[in-house]
Every structure is written in C-alpha cells, then in structure tokens.
Amino acid sequence: MSFLQHVWVRTGVLTLLLLPLTMLFAAGSALRRLAYRCGWLRTVSVGVPVIVVGNITAGGSGKTPLVIWLANWLRDQGYRPGVVSRGYGGTARGCVEVRADSPPALAGDEPALIRLKTEVPVVIGRDRAAAAHMLLEHHPDVDVIVSDDGLQHYRLHRDIELAVVDAATGLGNGWLLPAGPLREPASRLRSVDAVIQVVRGTVQPRTLGSVASWRADFSTAQAYRLKAPQEKRMMRDLPPRDWLAVTGIGQPQGFFAMLDAHGLRYRPCAFPDHHVFRPADIPLGEAVLMTEKDAVKCREFAGSDWWVVELDVVPDHGFVRWLDARLKQYQGRVCASEGGMYGN
C-alpha cells in the first residue's frame, strides 16, 4: 500500500499503464450505483437512523477516530448508539459481536479499538445490513447506528452520509483505483450530507472544488503506558528518550508529524496498514511510541517502556451544530409520522 500511495500522489507513467484497469473499475462501480438508484438492487432499512462514516479514498483518512468521537458524542446527547463495521483484517466470518475481550485478530483492529474507546455495542460483518439487524436483535434499546467505513455499502439504507478526507493527501492524483486512490469519483462528495477534512499538525484544509467541508483537528495531548493504562502523561512530560515510533496505519506520516509538533526525538518505523504485530517486530528493550490502533494488537507482549499516544478528533463547532439539528429534524419527522398514524 505504501508504494501505491507514493504512485497516487501524482500522475506518472505507472498511472497511465494502470488506466485500462481503472476504466474497468469505474464501469463496475458506476453500474453498481446505477443498480441501486434504479431499484434493481434493494436497500435495507433497519428502523433506526443510520449515520455512515466513510471515505472515497483507499488508505487511512482519520475515519476511525471520527467514528469514536461520534459514538461518544451521541451517547452524551442522550442517544443509545451502536456501531457496525466490516471488521477488516479480522478472521471472523459472518456477523459477530465485538466484546471487550475480543482479540483484534478476530474482530479487526479498528472495531476492537472502537469497542474499547466507546463501550457501545459493536457488530462486524461484510454485510452491514445483516450486521445492523444482529445489533438491534442483541441490543433492542439502540436507537441510532453508526456504520464505520460503509459509504460504498449501498445495501444498508442511510439517513446521514459523512465523507472523511485527509487534509494532507486530499484526493491524490484524482484517479480511480488502481491508477489513483479513489474508490468513487470525486463528484461523489457532492452527494454526501457533509464532508469532514481531518487536519493533523500544521496542515491546512484543502479546497475540494465546489464541495463545502468542515474541519476536524487531531489532538494528541496525552500518552499512557501500554502495560499500565492508568499511568497517563501529557505529551510534553514524556521523558526525553530516543524513541522508536512504530505504526501500522494508512497515513503514518500524519502520526510522525504529530510527534514532530511535540518536539519528540524518534526513529520512525512504519508497517503496512492493519499490520498484525508479532513480538519479533519490536525489540522489547526499546522505548516505543505507538497509536491506539496499533496498541490493541500489542497488549499481550508489550515491553515495559511502550507508550500509547491518544489520538482524539475535535470537529468544528459548526459541524456539531449541524449534526445536532439533522438528528432532531429526523426525530421530528418520526414523531409527526407516528402522530398522523395514530390520529387516523
């Protein structure tokens, strides 16, 4: 993936060589969208509002931290949220509920992290509609579902679509896979309900054509010792060691840039996205910094000086107000519909 990400930054010779495959991918993607628009393929409504959080690019965009923020925010507003996710990288088959002790190798690193950071019900499955039905069967009190990385999973009816874009990489060279990073054409952003640009460090949001967007800033104020999560320190209070910064996320440069912003001295060590860490990958005697997504896979064999950097996302206040209004608007429509039904 890292090699392709370098290719996707600009249009070059390899991009042109991949164009025939890109045309096939574009045709298949367009035909699938048309099938749902024309009703040849049916969407499934599960009876509660569904908020899809996804992206139109391959690789990391900051989607998972936004899902975590959204689930926690919904709970704070009095909702009872649940999350469905594909469970990418996990070995589970069918639909499986993620428990607090579910191994990331089974559930996938991102669903395991979402469950850990939110404590809301999480169900994984390639079929998001089936996962949503299972979620509601096991937790009938859930009144809103967040679909993690479900933008292209059209089978599940959605009430709000949120597209996440990494401000540092944007839409790359603008080509569809495999010549570029796009899962869908850039014009798809004009049909979603909101675009959120995730901003790391000093990077500024991009101009995405005529598409309006809000920003969401990554915050990295604290870190904790992996073997003692209760032992937290502010980033500025970490000891001045020669750190080994280890990560297996889609955009490792974003993690390194945040460490740079805190003035930490480190050696970068990047693995592929969703890398399954093993004891041999990281020497036990090293002083290590890693993301929470990586840490959930290293708890069983962590060294005594391995620290986890908390990555929180802070959306723009305008987006929060907009989202609150949209959910209340939905509730108003439901109440009006029920009132009309009982009134007859």
Q: Could you describe the 3D structure shown?
A:
This protein has 344 residues and is of the alpha/beta class. The protein contains ten helices and 15 strands. It has helices at 2-7, 13-17, 19-37, 63-76, 104-107, 109-118, 128-138, 252-261, 292-295, 317-343, and strands spanning 50-54, 81-85, 96-98, 122-124, 144-148, 160-166, 194-199, 214-219, 222-225, 228-234, 243-247, 266-270, 288-291, 306-309, 312-315. The strands form two sheets. A nine-stranded mixed sheet has the order 3-4-2-5-1-6-7-8-15. Strands 10-9-14-13-11-12 form a six-stranded mixed sheet. Helix 4 runs parallel beside helix 6. The termini are far apart.
- Largest sheet data: 9 strands, mixed
Query: Architecture of the largest domain in CATH?
Result: 3-Layer(aba) Sandwich
Query: Residue ranges: pLDDT <50 for 5 or more in a row?
Result: none
Supply the helix-strand structural class.
Answer: alpha/beta
Radius of gyration: 21 Å
CATH secondary-structure class of the largest domain: Alpha Beta
Cα end-to-end separation: 58 Å
Shape: globular
> Which percent range describes the beta-strand content?
15-25%
Side by side, the strands of the main sheet go 3-4-2-5-1-6-7-8-15
- CATH fold node name of the largest domain: Rossmann fold
Number of helices, where a helix is a run of at least 4 consecutive DSSP H or I residues: 10
Number of strands: 15
Number of domains: 2
H-E string = HHHEHEEHHEHEEEEEEEHEEHEEH
Tell me, rounded to a whole number, the average pLDDT.
92
Helix content estimate: 25-40%
